[in-house]
Amino acid sequence: MIQQKRWATGLLEILFSTRNPFLATLFGKLEFRQCLAYLWLLVWGLRSIPELCYAALPAYCIITNSHFLPQVHEPAIFIHVTLFVIYNLYTVSEYIRTGLSIRAWWNNNRMWRVTSMTAWLFGVLSVIPKLLGLSEMVFEVTQKDQTTTSDDSNANAGRFTFNESPIFVPGITILLVNLTALATGLLGFRPASHGGDGSAGIGEFICSVWVVLCFWAFLKGLFGKGKYGIPSSTICKSGVLALLFVHFCKWTSRS
């Protein structure tokens, strides 16, 4: 996570520096297609903001009993379903053609979601003060895990390890928010729909379940122990943020 944060911070520093691809294309010898290729890499960190918003959107719709996807009875729902299925089938086929498994595809797909909403988000937050001249970048030392005989067992192979770093807070918050939304919807605690716009449908529930599956390692960490468990202080911070989000949803549904 720390390494991903470093990469996001470094790429954003280049993007907002005097050596960015825009200026190199306008006043240098960088070609337009090369500029687009560099920009595709440099804006990785900025993806964290829309990723975070879209991960919270299904939960918001379920809690407020609204929707952002077409209803099941509307023909437009097939457009979203088709795009979702085609994209995932295409990416799975790419992995299979290169000799990788479907499990590898799923693990990498989950890690893209986790990394973008945790490490990349903190990369954006850490580069803003430097751009404003409020602070200087400090090199963060990555803590190395000390392996033991028990750690080498197959049961713990590939498991997430957690610590009290705030970098885990956004991911746990998103997980708690979506779990709360699913519980709210399944138990029937949603407010009555109004305005004739319809209520949250199956599309919002599927999206919320998808987010929970992407953060499944964090869900296991809530019940884990030792370095495989999320510290209680981190859970408390995330819980407070999740409660604030739920309160915000309730407030918007009443207004």
TrEMBL record:
One of the protein's GO biological processes: cell wall organization
Keyword Transferase listed: yes
Protein location: Endomembrane system
A single Gene Ontology CC term: membrane
Transmembrane segments: 36-57, 77-96, 117-135, 167-189, 201-218, 230-249
Superkingdom as given in the UniProt entry: Eukaryota
EC class of the enzyme, as a word: transferase
Keywords linked to the UniProt accession: Cell wall biogenesis/degradation, Glycosyltransferase, Membrane, Transferase, Transmembrane, Transmembrane helix
Entry EC no(s): 2.4.1.12
InterPro entries: Cellulose_synth
GO molecular function terms attached to this record: cellulose synthase (UDP-forming) activity
The keyword Glycosyltransferase appears for this protein: yes
A Pfam cross-reference name: Cellulose_synt
Protein name: Putative cellulose synthase-like protein H1
Natural source organism: Davidia involucrata
